[in-house]
Amino acid sequence: MSWINALCETYEKLKDSPELLKRCSMPLAPPSHTVQNAHAEIFLNESGELLRIRPLTKAEARTITPCTEDSAVRSSNNAPHIVYDNLKYIAGDAQRYIAKQDNSKNYEKYCAQLSDWCNDENCPNQVKAIYKYIKRGTVFHDLIESGLILPEEKLKWNGDKDNKPADILKTVVRFRVEDKYGNSFECNTNSELMNSYMEYDRKNRKQKSICFVSGTTQAVTYKHPTKIRTTGDSARLISANDEYGFTYRGRFKNKENVFSVGFESSDKAHSALRWLVSNQGFSTGDQTVVVWCVGGEDIPTPLQDTYDITAGGDPFGDEAPAAIYNSERQYAKLVELAVNGYIYKIPDNDNVIIMILESATPGRLSITYYREFSPNDYLDRIKTWHTTCVWNHKYKLVSKILPDGKQELKHIEFTGAPSINDIIYAAYGRNVDEKQKKHLMEILISCITDGKRMPKDFMNKSLQRVSNPHSFNEDWELSKATSITCSIINKYIYDTKGMNYSMSLDISNKDRSYLFGRVLAYAEQIEDYVLYKSGDKRPPNAIKLRSKYRIQPAKTLMVIDEKLLPYVEKLYSSSTWLYDEMQKVIAEISANDFMNNKPLDPQYLLGYACQKAELLKKHDKKDETKETEEN
Question: Hey, CA dihedral for 516, 517, 518, 521, is it positive or negative?
């Protein structure tokens, strides 16, 4: 199945699923229609007489608009839409108020198009009422009288401030017709009006050929829709209007030899893609990633972290869902239940599609990545990622809106894989170049969906950053980057050696780097504990010297141990066990491994993280015991 076939099929599924369409404020436009943001709504009676005018809020601005083949792709040419458009086209009296703007040709063409539809035998009476009103040429005057436009030296918009036109002439107006009983005919959502215009437009398209999508002979188009990512997006996916460049010259005589797509197939595919991008697309600059199931079912995406895919319940409630799993088997079972239909139910005959869009220029949009999967294949790859790129994390921040409108935030602990965004930031920092970030995102998506290895660059970059704590402004940033780097290292080890390190402390692991990492955790904890008790906020020497420790562990450990002795003397008798245990771990390192002083492998960070978590757990238990005794 090609991308355009998949989108056409998705359109048909969405069209028949009103519950799915309610999820998104972007409407699904039928063929021969486009979507634009309206700023005002004019109410008329059946005779085309003005009743009232109201401003539209940003939330209700999106409007399905009948359009022509030319107006669907217009930029600066004279190509009016049908019925709803901006004042440049519908206001016959605009020149009275803006002398320098001669819009008479625009207005005449708009009226001619609308008149032609009104002469069609199937044209709704409400459209004829709108035409009668437009022919009076008082739209601009009526907007001023209603107070939506202030007649100052420079005409000023006085409607919703969040839904303000870029220019007064770009104010888009839509219409509503009321009968004598007060029943309202909402033109922009009325299926009778849409079907009438689709039939009218279909009859008037003369150029017919074989549609390469449907395989049938039908009216075709070479002017494909824009506004895919936003209502102001002018980039096109399909274009062959460069008759003097090298788009097809040398291989084909004309564009008709290259391809032909039915206008309905094109409109359906672009409308479905517009809806998908608005509802579930993720954008970075001019790159957009969209993942969807053709049947419309909810699916986990490669962009999510494990908590977003597996967690259920209310994290703000008294019984928050469990999210930390020290047992790898227990965690793997949770992921398996989630991706195998416990949460997401996808029919076997459906397709899951991943598409990445990017515009090289403002007028051209390309598909840089496209994959189709069967549900089982896709879910298996998601499951593999979330059970191999895994560690315990404490940085997740979730929010909810309270009844009074305020936002409540809460930190969540979870076991699993971080999001792609967090992996990129951990490895390259938050100031990563936008162009580089787009490239990195595509690499990571391919790691998940194509099963490619975790690039060594990601591991080395993130390890270098967390081994240099001075590059972080806050302690929580270092802690977050550390746990994410552990996930990356775990994934890289799985990809290269076919094994995962345990997320809990493995005292049987005698790997040199792992043991040195454990020692570093002890040294940091001892000094940090004494500094905390004395109210000193300085970072421990173990953190300051972490970069040197990774490169020359034995030599640096001697320096750390020497600096540690004054702090050991200040330890309370109940806490001297920390230093004793540290010495026991040092004793486990063989003399040869200790004295060669070669740089540590990435596993040192796993040993450090596991030992640090274990020490914090022991301190929490001791504090609980002490509190119980005091009570």
Answer: positive
* Distant-in-sequence, close-in-space partners of 232: CB < 8 Å, separation ≥ 6: none
Residues 6+ apart with CB under 8 A from 197: 32, 33, 66, 82, 117
One-letter amino acid at 300 equals P
> Would you say the C-alpha torsion 559, 611, 410, 303 has a positive or negative sign?
positive
Q: Are 293 and 272 in contact (CB under 8 A)?
A: no
Q: Is the pLDDT of residue 500 over 80?
A: yes
Question: How far apart (Å, rounded) are the C-alpha atoms in residues 350 and 15?
Answer: 17
Query: 420-428 and 434-449 are packed helices; what angle lies between their axes, rounded to 10 degrees?
Result: 130
62-99 pLDDT tens trace: 999 999 999 998 877 899 999 999 999 999 999 888 87
- Residue 314 pLDDT level (bands cut at 50, 70, 90): low
Structural element, H or E, at residue 287: strand 287-293
Residue 414 backbone dihedrals phi, psi, to 5 degrees: -150, 155
Residues 6+ apart with CB under 8 A from 598: none
Angle between helices 125-135 and 104-118 (to 10 degrees): 150
Q: Indicate the length of the chain as a whole number.
A: 631
Band the pLDDT of 320: cuts 50, 70, 90: very low
Cβ–Cβ < 8 Å for 175, 187: yes
For the segment 530-551, the average pLDDT, to the nearest whole number, is 86
Q: Which residues contact 589 (CB under 8 A, 6 or more apart)?
A: 512, 515, 516, 519
Encoded tokens for 323: 């999210």
Give pLDDT, residue 411: 83
Write down the pLDDT at residue 601.
95
What is the distance between the alpha carbons of residues 553 and 527, in angstroms, rounded to a whole number?
18
| Alpha carbon 146 to chain centroid, angstroms | 40
Neighbours of 131 (CB within 10 A): 18
**Nearest alpha-carbon partner for 390 in 502, 294, 477:** 502
pLDDT, tens digit, 9 for 90 and up, residues 5-37: 999 999 999 998 888 888 888 899 999 999 999
Do the beta carbons of residue 82 and residue 125 sit within 8 Å? Answer: no
Confidence of residue 2 (pLDDT cuts 50, 70, 90): confident
Residues near 141 by beta carbon (within 8 Å), at least 6 away in sequence: 93, 96
